[in-house]
Amino acid sequence: MLKAATTKALYAGSFDPITRGHLDIIGKALMTFDAVHVAIGTNPRKTRTFDVEQSQRLIAESIAELWPEARGSAREPLFGGALEVGEYANQSLIGYARRIGATHIVRGLREASDFTDEFNLHGVAGRIDPSIPMVHFICASQFLHVSSSTAKELDAVGEPIDWLVMPCVEAAFAGRRP
């Protein structure tokens, strides 16, 4: 029972859109693991505000806005390849983790209600493949009330969302308005 020589974390979610809270968890994962793979999971029962391709672009742009050192140019990989952005659909979280070679799964916690859902996911994932541990990070206190849903709801009624999302995401919302 030893640590993997090289660690790679999978952080999966809808990221519709990516928020400052998500970025906080990504930052913690980058400080903990050798590589981090952020994956947009698609749920056919949900209607997305931004399509997967646009969400992938917003993730990369948000990371570059928050951490300018993440990339030297628009074509360079994020953090020299230590951060990847992908998509998974029609497979389990554990199946995707295996496919990309993840050694860990990262999840974010904001409040007590998140814990119940995460506890259940943790139990199921552990039964499917106990060799891929799930690691939970609690977001910084200023992000406890930040969610993608809140960003969408506030934007829809014309309230400022700069405290929830990065400028590129604000611009993407503005671009959707008539």
Report a brief summary of the structure:
The chain is α/β, with parallel strands linked by helices and 178 residues long. The protein has six helices and five strands.
Distance between the termini: 57 Å
Strand tally is 5
Low-confidence stretches: none
Percentage beta strand: 15-25%
Report Rg: 16 Å
Helix-residue proportion: 40-55%
Which structural class should the secondary elements be placed in? alpha/beta
Describe what you observe in this structure.
The structure is a single chain. The protein has helices at 20-32, 52-66, 93-100, 112-128, 148-156, 167-176; strands spanning 8-13, 35-41, 83-88, 104-109, 134-138. It has 178 residues and is α/β, with parallel strands linked by helices. It is globular. The chain starts with 7 loop residues before the first strand and ends with a helix.
Essential attributes:
single chain, 178 residues, alpha/beta, five-stranded parallel sheet, 6 helices
Task: Detail the topology: elements first, then pairings.
Elements: E1 8-13, H1 20-32, E2 35-41, H2 52-66, E3 83-88, H3 93-100, E4 104-109, H4 112-128, E5 134-138, H5 148-156, H6 167-176
Helix pairs in contact: 2-6
